[in-house]
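Ops channel
N.P.: pipeline sanity check, posting one input/output pair.
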């Protein structure tokens, strides 16, 4: 059951906020991420922390990790984030969060380590039950320009099964992907894909799979069916079962199942 492991997954998973130039540099939701070690190693989707040119954002050190109940409380947020490693091929970014510099925060009171989700390299089969937790559909706004703004988070659990372990968009030579039978929304990017049975993270939310579906009842002037694009019908996620990724984790003594 999802409830057996959800509390730990929720504790280790955060919304990532980054400065937004459109609102005067105020931190706004950019995606989801989660701790994978007690020392503060943290993963998200690489595209969450990259700029439009594909380079690591220069303001990454101003990233803020928040939850829905503490978005406005400095004592409960998490800061001091730095880049560890980027895996562009997998759309995964490995970050490091400094525990000592966050130890004065209220949510870490009397704790000696971060809550974390164990990474698994186990192979998932079609039909296996999984779930995701993240912060899709988050929003923000400005109350007083340059002085006061707000963030609204929408934590969501999405249950799914592995619909396919092959994604034709990547080809046989590409990284290992799983296709879920449920859509993942913007903001889920970087969140964990959890095996319901074990509570371990097998993959990361990475992208969407838009589909173009011809509508037989709608015709153009030539009598051809008009195609309609559905932006997100299935979720495509990047597996952690990759030699390069696991090698980096092991070199940093990050727990791997």
């Amino acid at each position: 059951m999802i409830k057996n492991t959800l509390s730990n997954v929720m504790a280790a998973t955060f919304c990532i906020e980054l400065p937004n130039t459109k609102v005067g540099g105020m931190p706004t939701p950019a995606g989801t991420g989660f701790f994978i070690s007690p020392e503060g190693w943290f993963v998200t989707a690489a595209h969450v922390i990259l700029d439009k040119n594909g380079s690591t954002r220069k303001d990454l050190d101003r990233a803020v990790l928040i939850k829905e109940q503490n978005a406005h409380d400095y004592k409960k947020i998490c800061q001091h984030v730095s880049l560890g490693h980027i895996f562009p091929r997998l759309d995964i970014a490995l970050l490091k969060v400094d525990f000592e510099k966050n130890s004065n925060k209220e949510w870490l009171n009397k704790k000696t380590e971060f809550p974390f989700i164990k990474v698994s390299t186990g192979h998932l089969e079609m039909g296996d039950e999984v779930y995701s937790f993240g912060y899709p559909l988050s929003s923000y706004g400005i109350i007083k320009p340059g002085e006061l703004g707000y963030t609204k988070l929408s934590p969501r659990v999405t249950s799914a099964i592995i619909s396919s372990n092959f994604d034709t968009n990547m080809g046989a030579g590409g990284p290992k992907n799983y296709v879920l039978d449920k859509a993942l929304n913007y903001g889920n990017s970087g969140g964990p894909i959890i095996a319901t049975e074990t509570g371990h993270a097998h993959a990361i939310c990475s992208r969407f799979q838009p589909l173009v579906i011809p509508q037989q009842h709608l015709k153009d002037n030539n009598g051809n069916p008009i195609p309609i694009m559905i932006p997100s019908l299935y979720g495509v996620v990047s597996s952690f079962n990759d030699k390069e990724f696991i090698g980096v984790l092991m070199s940093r003594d990050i727990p791997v199942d």
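N.P.: looks fine end to end. The first strand starts at residue 13 and ends at 20.
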